[in-house]
Amino acid sequence: MNLKPDEIAVGKENFNEAVGISRREFLQGSVAAAAVSGVGLGAAYFGYQQLKVNDPVRVGVIGTGDEGSVLIGAINPEYIDVVAISDIRPYNVHRAFHGDHSSPAALDARKGLMSVYDWKTEDEAKKHVKVYTDYKELLADPNIEAVICALPLFLHKQVAMDAMAAGKHVLTEKLMAQTVMQCKEMARMAEEQNLYLATGHQRHYSVLYDNAVNLIKWGVLGEIHHIRAQWHRGNLPGGDSWQQPLPGGEKLADGKMVDEIKSQMNKFKKRIEDESDPARRAQYKLLFAQYEAWNNDRDIDPTQYGYNDFTIKNRQGQDRQISAMEELCRWRLWDRTGGGLMAELGSHQLDAASIFISALRADGKKAHPLTVHATGGRHLFGYDRDADDHVYCMFEFPGSGYDPSFDVGYYDNVTNWPPAGKGVPSYNDDPHKKVVVTYSSINGNGYGGYGEVVMGSKGTLVLEREKDVMLYKNGVSADTKLSVKKGADGPTMDTQASGGGSKAAAVANTTSAGPVSRGYTEEIEHWAACIRNPGPENKPKCHPEVAMADAVIALTARLAMQRSNQGKGGYVEFKEEWFDVHSDATPEKDLA
């Protein structure tokens, strides 16, 4: 389901015309301006097209693994000039240049530098891009103005602090850091050094999510009272996406030695020899080269880069040796190096929930939760990880009318949005006015996939996989057609029997070309635009205060789960000082 730049369709009707708003005219003008200026729709839509970037920001990418290569693939060369990369793994360096050929979807997300900058060979690319193993050597390069950090979570804080100490702006992958105190130290450093520190919660730059926010602001859903979010995956023992094969092979629990990477190399080597079709043969060569680079990871010593050999006990109390190579390749599984499901998956969707609830605020600030009740555990996996494979959380957020911060009301004339003194105020200082957010992330059963459901007193908004949005009239059945019309009291929703089985009114249009942007390109563009146009009025949407709040939410929920498993109860009340950059109060300290 793809968003057409100049319209947002509901059924067969144009949503903008149906509710009488001026957003269509705004987008049409923005798209026209974009065509003249050469910038993309994201710049026009989010309003940073006026921030000139005549000279692309010279960037070094530290960490070019799965997520780092996604960010490389999202780069707009008009904003970013990648002049260096740093990674300790030959596999990651290879993908940084050539892209990820493991599947069409992987290549679409991880295009590689040669594709992004239209370099024909790796030799040509390396004339433009220096390759470092030690990231500190990259930071010492005076030609580099800023860095993108996409390393394992436990390294975020140190690398970001080192980069800012070297005078570099930073965009770090989510979660901002492994503890709230680390986030605060990073935020303070950015403030002291007057540098831009952004964090990659890309939903802040999703046109799809922004339009969902507009529906909430316009009152189309009525009073928001519940949000349900989930990220369910069909990961099972023996087929876990976080448990990648180890270079050099590994001994399984039954004592059998396997080397899956070497086996793949041999498979594609034979296919190259046997294949007569030139196109298929070329593809097999690309895959062989990728697995060959992965196999070369066996020659590195991870203990030289902060990874450890250690011993864990299985459920029967037996020792199992974990190598530094396994900690490097499977860092998401371990408490020392990762943050589990809440940091890797939950942080994205709780950020989305807080974006929706923040839309109810009159002061424009990020909404903070009041309480969380959480539980979780390793229900399927045993001795091969620290990370839980099931987590369940229930949050209470302040809702519309909870306190004066949420005196936003519903707009009675969205043509003049945002209104000047218009709308029906909803604030009544009622402590019972809360929004309950439930979140589950599980392995072992992928039913339902991932997405968010926003429920209001008038309607329900369903967002699936950052691609599709459906709008429902209240709790109507899937065979009901919905339309949005502007009435005397503002936007309203009508339903009628459709007979055609239309499950919902689509907020996005399926006829436009190209996929819906997930926001990676836009977050990088805006960060670069702020660097080129410094000033207090220009800052990334996910600046330290926002990113730290996301970390507080995710990490506190994880602490609540740990307390539940320790028999201390999984209920925690949030403290506002945890969200204050300049306070030393943190959940990890207060809940110890």
UniProtKB/TrEMBL annotation:
The lineage of its organism: Bacteria, Pseudomonadati, Planctomycetota, Planctomycetia, Pirellulales. Pfam families: GFO_IDH_MocA. GO terms for molecular function: nucleotide binding. Gene3D superfamilies: Dihydrodipicolinate Reductase, domain 2 (3.30.360.10), NAD(P)-binding Rossmann-like Domain (3.40.50.720). Residues 58-201 form the Gfo/Idh/MocA-like oxidoreductase N-terminal domain. NCBIfam families: TAT_signal_seq (TIGR01409). Residues 484-517 are annotated as: Disordered. This is Gfo/Idh/MocA family oxidoreductase.
